[in-house]
Structures are given as C-alpha cells and as structure tokens.
TrEMBL record:
One of its GO terms (biological process) is response to redox state. NAD(+) binds at G105, A106, G107, N108, L109, G110. It is found in: Cytoplasm. It comes from Arthrobacter oryzae. Residues 94-195 form the CoA-binding domain. The lineage of its organism: Bacteria, Bacillati, Actinomycetota, Actinomycetes, Micrococcales. Pfam families: CoA_binding, Put_DNA-bind_N. Belongs to the transcriptional regulatory Rex family. The keyword Transcription applies. Its main location: cytoplasm. GO terms for molecular function: DNA binding; DNA-binding transcription factor activity. This is Redox-sensing transcriptional repressor Rex.
Length: 230
C-alpha cells in the first residue's frame, strides 16, 4: 500500500558508514518483526528459517538474504533465537528510538489513526492531532485534544513530535507538508491523494488506498476473465 520516496534505510550503530538496506527488504523486515513478536507471545524461543519464512509469506532464501542485511544469526540445525532476532531487527528499523507522532487532520481517518492501539506497542506514541475546522478544534480523540492547525509549529515543538501523518485533502496537503518540514519534522506519512514535493533529507511515504483498490480491481478482473485482451 505504500511507496518509498526516500533513500534506503541503514543499520544503525557500528563503525564507519552504515550499511544500506534495500527498500523492499526493509518492508519485509517489518513483516518478520511482526511474525517474531507473535512467536514471542506464544512462548517460542527458537524458529527455523523455513518456519519464519512460511509465517511471513516469503521463501526461505528471501528471508535469509534479507536477514543478511542486518547480520545472520541463525545456527544450522538450531534456527534463530527469536528474542534476539526480534531485538536486532527492531534496532535496524530504528524502533528502539522514541518516535512521537503528530496527526494532521482530525477527520474520520485521522481520528481512527489516533485511536489505533497498535502504534504504542510498536514504539510509536501519538502526541498531537490537529485540524483547521473550529467546530472540531478542542474536541477529544482518545486522550488527546484536537489542536488548532494554526498553532501547528509551536505544538510540534512543545510535544517533540518527530514524525507526522497527513490525513488531509489534496488542496492543502503541500502547504501543511511544508509547514511540518519547516518545524523540523523529517519523517512524514501522507494519506493525501496528491504527490508531495519534499527537500532532500526528508523521508516521505505515501499511502494511496484508491490506487491500491484500482490495482486489486485489475487483478480481480484478470482472475475472472483470464482470456481477456491485454
């Protein structure tokens, strides 16, 4: 559902330049992390590459190649230490840092995101939510109170937000994006149905649900009519 519009991720720590991880591998690492977290919840201590690959929906060779980007910690005949690998992937993805998220747009999508309980368990704290509609400003979303978008910059600085989610109409998305960047935020997730322009050094990811549904419709049509014309 997302498209990467920034430079590849890097493994943190260590001497010398950080090793770059290809964007596709980064996306799969998040899936491995989810599978490992589920295994930990079940009390599983070790897992084979075959089992972890199956739980993640990839081939064992793809899994091993992806894990080589963060260092391979499997032992032949024994498998991977689930807790250790979970911590190491989390560190490689930057999830050991404190990520404070501000949501701009308190419509249905913004409110749903603010209430989502899965963020905190994965290291993301939603610290602010904004809207320009004065009928919405001051209302409560979970434990948060909607702030006026006119006060975007001071609230971002006060809360220490270092990530922003844009749940906005296309017409205002670029202006708000520029303001967020000017306030010092360098990691942005946009749900706005428009291509945003950001300067070098800013990580932007775009989620376009309409496009994903169109792609699904294409594949569904092909499945129903495999003999159709190209």
């Amino acid at each position: 559902m997302t498209s990467l519009e920034s430079s590849p991720h890097a493994v943190p720590g260590g001497a010398g330049p950080a090793k770059q991880i290809p964007p596709a591998a980064v996306a799969r690492l998040t899936i491995y992390l989810r599978a490992l977290t589920a295994l930990l919840a079940e009390g599983v201590d070790r897992v084979s590459s075959e089992s972890l690959a199956e739980a993640s929906g990839v081939s064992p060779s793809t899994l091993r190649k992806d894990l080589s980007h963060v260092g391979s910690y499997g032992t032949r005949g024994v498998g991977y230490d689930v807790q250790y690998l979970n911590r190491h992937i989390a560190a490689a993805l930057g999830l050991t840092h404190d990520w404070k998220v501000a949501i701009v747009g308190a419509g249905n999508l913004g409110r749903a995101l603010a209430r989502y309980g899965g963020f905190e368990s994965r290291g993301f704290e939603v610290v602010a939510i904004f809207d320009a509609d004065q009928m919405v400003v001051g209302s409560e979303v979970g434990w948060l109170r909607v702030s006026d978008a006119a006060n975007l910059e001071p609230v971002l600085q006060r809360t220490g937000a270092n990530m922003a989610v844009l749940a906005l109409p296309a017409a205002v998305a670029q202006d708000v994006c520029d303001r967020v960047i000017a306030a010092g935020v360098r990691s942005i997730l946009s749900f706005a149905p428009v291509v945003l322009q950001v300067p070098p050094g800013v990580n932007l990811r775009k989620v376009d649900m309409a496009t994903e549904l169109q792609i699904l419709a294409y594949h569904a049509q092909r499945a129903q009519d495999p003999a159709g014309t190209d």
